[in-house]
């Protein structure tokens, strides 16, 4: 209930005159109130007498819980990620594709070692904080009950509370949730990486401020606007748009390395096919070809992304072109060399801002290439010509038309006509975004996985351009409402929908592949894809698997029990020592009964900096222990999970001190540990 809702007050009690007075003050002096609508007493004191409040003024962004959110972000995780083989799809073809079911802050912490500066693009679509959205809890319990038991729900899912706008910490709750996750996410981005966050008007101001603080306001690249359906029932304006906030990990790094973003103009291949058809049909009658091409353009809707091509209305043997390009230097102060008219031989009229080309030689090259269009004489400033088929790259626009109704229909069709998820993101928008910001071989992370749009966009983009981008999605196992279509269709948790969508996309793409002959990219295109991956300044490596698969992981307890022994004050020192020994024996026995090599390997290697697409190769030179070589794209190590390390294995490392070696702490006695530490130093990791 808002302070101005006097009718609601009267319905349950006598009039609240204090509420009326506060509402009147807020209407007159909104700057005296916090974002949550509470009177800021210090600000009021300043109005009465500035001497009543002593403070050092500075520009700062504060909210209740900010310190706690930062502390929570940097608290280490003791949890583990456990592979769910039953729900994984084509795991042998997964590459680095993963869908992780769990609380996303804890998952981000677990990824922060192995995936630090490995992610090229983070895209998230967090709760918009409309008053009906939930705010994630940051408490992960490692006790006997699953971590979602702390919310007071059954062990089959996670309940999350709505962040109602009547809560006195409405904005603070949301900001704390975002702040902690963004702090950890920043460490995952590569130096040339980007983070993109979807949001609407409810929190865009606060989101920009918290992202300025976490990533640096100098790294704000753009605020993209996605224009959706018009709302004719709106009282004042039809607010039918959303935003995507784009930040670079390090904009200065991008500038220093001369990184520019460009994408293929949509529809160029289509126009090329129409042009060739018309050219053949009219035998190079350029007038008729031009009219035919313009008729083709007219059929495009007003908001069609191909519309920029409709400005190429003139044609000749080089295809459609336009010759109205501005020859002026942007902003003024450009060079003023002479450009002679080809017919009169006299200097052409100079643009008021100077020529666009910094050097006379560059201007001459463009004239020779027929890209400078002269007027009838030197009194007309020349213009620039652009040939559509020669310049197929363009910068992405900041405003895009995107229709939610069509998206919802397409999503429902994927689930047999059932509406199992509200407001799924347009897969086409994300596909274009990832094409613009990433290259083959890049990793894309979405830690508010939702309906799984990111997974679909990545796999469809890979199919379109032959790349092998990989996705990591994280989704809380939030319960679906018992009366919802999703629950009735068998999806008890949102994460079930995330996984099922990715599975159905794979099935669809595999079916399409079987229905046609294998499509081979031209040799030039194959070489380009290889070159992009090899030349990447951070990633490196050649494209690998096709990525039509993914592994499912669940957030769970560590396989390594924590020490929770406490001495009994009523017992003697000797008795307590014996109790401690028995406690250790019991824990060790339980440990060996519970563990499975593969799940323990995932935990150990992830926490030692290995990405979860690592490979294992058994090393035959070790005859007394089972030793494997673990390897990912960036590092390698020998690892052994045997309960005892044999003397022969220790002798091997005396002669070969180069490799890293990971083993169990309990597998080493004092002598073996000393010898290994002596020969391997920091390359020995005993856990």
How much helicity do the residues have?
25-40%
Work out the strand percent.
5-15%
CATH homologous superfamily designation of the largest domain:
Vaccinia Virus protein VP39
Q: Which stretches are low in confidence, meaning pLDDT under 50 for 5 or more residues running?
A: 1-13, 141-159, 533-544
Q: State the CATH class of the largest domain.
A: Alpha Beta
Provide the number of structural domains: 4
Described by strand count, sense and barrel closure, the largest sheet is: 10 strands, mixed
Distance between the termini: 54 Å
Strand order of the largest sheet: 1-16-2-15-14-3-4-6-5-13
Output the radius of gyration: 31 Å
E-strand count: 21
Overall geometry comes to globular
Structural class: alpha/beta
CATH architecture of the largest domain: 3-Layer(aba) Sandwich
CATH topology of the largest domain: Rossmann fold
Summed over residues and divided by their number, the pLDDT gives a mean of 84
**Alpha plus pi helix count:** 21
Oligomer: single chain
């Amino acid at each position: 209930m808002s302070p101005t809702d006097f009718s609601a007050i009267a319905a349950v009690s006598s009039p609240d005159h204090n509420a009326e007075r506060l509402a009147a003050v807020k209407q007159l002096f909104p700057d005296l109130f916090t974002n949550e609508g509470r009177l800021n007493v210090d600000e009021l004191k300043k109005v009465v007498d500035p001497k009543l409040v002593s403070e050092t003024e500075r520009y700062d962004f504060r909210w209740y819980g900010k310190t706690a959110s930062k502390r929570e972000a940097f608290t280490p995780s003791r949890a583990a990620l456990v592979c769910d083989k039953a729900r994984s799809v084509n795991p042998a073809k997964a590459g680095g594709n993963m869908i992780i079911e769990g609380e996303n802050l804890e998952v981000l912490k677990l990824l922060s070692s192995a995936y630090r500066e490995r992610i090229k693009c983070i895209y998230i679509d967090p709760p918009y904080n409309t008053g009906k959205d939930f705010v994630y809890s940051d408490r992960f319990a490692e006790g006997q009950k699953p971590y979602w038991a702390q919310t007071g729900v059954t062990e089959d899912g996670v309940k999350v509370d709505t962040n109602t706008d009547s809560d006195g910490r409405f904005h603070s709750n949301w900001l704390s949730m975002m702040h902690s996750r963004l702090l950890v996410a920043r460490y995952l981005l590569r130096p040339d990486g980007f983070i993109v966050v979807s949001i609407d008007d409810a929190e865009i101001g606060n989101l920009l401020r918290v992202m300025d603080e976490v990533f640096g306001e100098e790294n704000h690249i753009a605020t993209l606007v996605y224009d959706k359906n018009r709302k004719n029932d709106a009282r004042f304006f039809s607010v039918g748009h959303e935003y995507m906030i784009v930040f670079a990990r390090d904009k200065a790094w991008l500038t220093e390395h001369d990184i520019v973003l460009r994408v293929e103009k949509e529809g160029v291949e289509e126009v090329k096919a129409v042009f060739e058809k018309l050219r053949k049909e009219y035998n190079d009658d350029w007038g008729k070809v031009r009219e035919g091409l313009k008729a083709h353009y007219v059929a495009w809707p007003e908001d069609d992304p191909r519309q920029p091509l409709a400005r190429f209305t003139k044609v000749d043997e080089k295809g459609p072109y336009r010759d109205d390009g501005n020859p002026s230097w942007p902003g003024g102060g450009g060079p003023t060399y002479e450009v002679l008219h080809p017919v009169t031989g006299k200097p052409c009229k100079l643009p008021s801002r100077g020529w666009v080309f910094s050097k006379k030689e560059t201007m001459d090259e463009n004239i020779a290439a027929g890209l400078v269009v002269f007027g009838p004489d030197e009194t007309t400033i020349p213009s620039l010509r652009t040939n559509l088929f020669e310049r197929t790259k363009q910068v992405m626009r900041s405003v895009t038309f995107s229709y939610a109704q069509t998206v919802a229909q397409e999503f429902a069709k994927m689930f047999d006509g059932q509406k199992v998820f509200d407001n799924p993101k347009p897969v086409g928008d994300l596909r274009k975004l990832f094409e613009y910001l990433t290259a083959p071989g890049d990793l894309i992370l979405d830690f508010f996985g939702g309906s799984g749009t990111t997974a679909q966009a990545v796999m469809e983009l890979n199919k379109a351009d032959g790349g092998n981008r990989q996705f990591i999605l994280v989704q809380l196992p939030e319960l679906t409402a018992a009366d919802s279509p999703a629950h009735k269709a068998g999806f008890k948790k949102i994460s079930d929908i995330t996984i099922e969508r990715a599975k159905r996309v794979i099935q669809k793409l595999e079916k399409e592949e079987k229905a046609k002959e294998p499509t081979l990219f031209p040799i030039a295109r194959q070489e380009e894809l290889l070159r992009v991956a090899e030349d990447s300044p951070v990633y490196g490596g050649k494209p690998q698997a096709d990525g039509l698969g993914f592994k499912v992981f669940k957030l769970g307890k560590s396989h390594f029990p924590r020490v929770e022994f406490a001495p009994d004050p009523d017992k003697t020192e000797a008795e307590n020592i014996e109790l401690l020994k028995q406690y250790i024996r019991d824990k060790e026995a339980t440990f060996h009964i519970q563990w499975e090599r593969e799940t323990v390997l995932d935990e150990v290697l992830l926490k030692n900096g290995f990405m979860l697409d690592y490979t294992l190769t058994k090393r035959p030179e070790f005859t007394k222990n089972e030793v494997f070589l673990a390897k990912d794209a960036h590092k390698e190590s020998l690892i052994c999970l045997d309960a005892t390390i044999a003397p022969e294995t220790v002798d091997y490392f005396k002669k070969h001190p180069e490799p890293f070696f990971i083993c169990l702490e309990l597998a080493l006695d004092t002598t073996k540990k000393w010898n290994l530490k002596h020969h391997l130093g920091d390359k020995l990791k005993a856990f």
